Amino acid sequence: MIKRIYTIAVLAFLAVNTFAQTKVTKSAVTFKIKNLGFNVGGTFTGFNADIKFTPANLATSTIEASVAANTVNTDSEGRDNHLKSDDYFDVAKYPKITVKSVSFKHKSGNNYTGSFNVTIKDKTKLIEIPFTYVESGSTATFKGDFQVLRTDFGIGSKNIILSNEANVSIEAEISK
Predict the structure, then answer these.
(1) Could you tell me if 74 and 102 are in contact, meaning their C-beta atoms sit under 8 angstroms apart?
(2) C-alpha 100: how far from its chain's center?
(3) Closest CA to 44 of 78, 26, 64, 70
(4) Cα distance between the two ends of the chain
(5) E strand or H helix at 51, and its extent?
(6) Is the pLDDT assigned to residue 10 strictly greater than 50?
(7) Which residue in 79, 103, 152, 158 is a FRET match for 137, CA 20 to 30 A apart?
(8) pLDDT band for position 9 (50/70/90)?
(9) What 3-state class would DSSP assign to 10?
(10) Secondary structure tally for the chain: helices H, strands E
(11) pLDDT at 23
(12) Confidence band, pLDDT 50/70/90 cuts, at residue 75
């Protein structure tokens, strides 16, 4: 009898912690910002993450992720090079953009909000990021959208033709 209880307890623990240690299998990091009133978009590649997310235990869940700043890609090579310069991301001095979780809250269903320290160009700001977390078989998908103020991070100085608000979307599929 004790063996059965122990087996059930171990199985329950494994079921609750299925996605506690994960590997990112797919990812997309995109952004949009208005420049001269037109939306300009782009992507970052080089996404890396250490995700230990357990919906049943948000207090111990953590997410640390980064993208390589020099992987910024828009529809213009000239714009890409300008974004990599010290006027914008200064990729030679600050090669990574990072996010690190502080806490999580469950909203409803698959909807969560995380408080994250976002670091760009050695400047860190606490940003609330709403996201969804959906499990499917041996994978799970995170999708989140948030806004950053570029001047909070010293990006693009006081450029009056470029909006201060940049919209960022992150999608990551993980497997254990």
Answers:
(1) no
(2) 9
(3) 70
(4) 31
(5) strand 48-52
(6) no
(7) 103
(8) very low
(9) helix
(10) 2, 9
(11) 86
(12) confident
Q: Say how many C-beta atoms besides its own lie within 10 A of residue 110's C-beta.
A: 15
171: left (phi over 0), alpha (psi -120 to 50) or beta: beta
The predicted structure's pLDDT at residue 18: 42
DSSP 85: S
CA distance 85 to 171: 26
Which residue's structure tokens are 């990599």?
Answer: 84
As a whole number of angstroms, the distance between CA 45 and CA 166 comes to 17
**Token pair belonging to 73:** 């890609």
Token output for 61: 């869940």
Which residue from 171, 174, 131 is spatially nearest to 18, judged by alpha carbons?
Answer: 174
Which amino acid, residue 123? Answer: K
Per this entry, what is the length of the chain? Answer: 176
CA angle 24, 104, 16 (to 5 degrees): 65
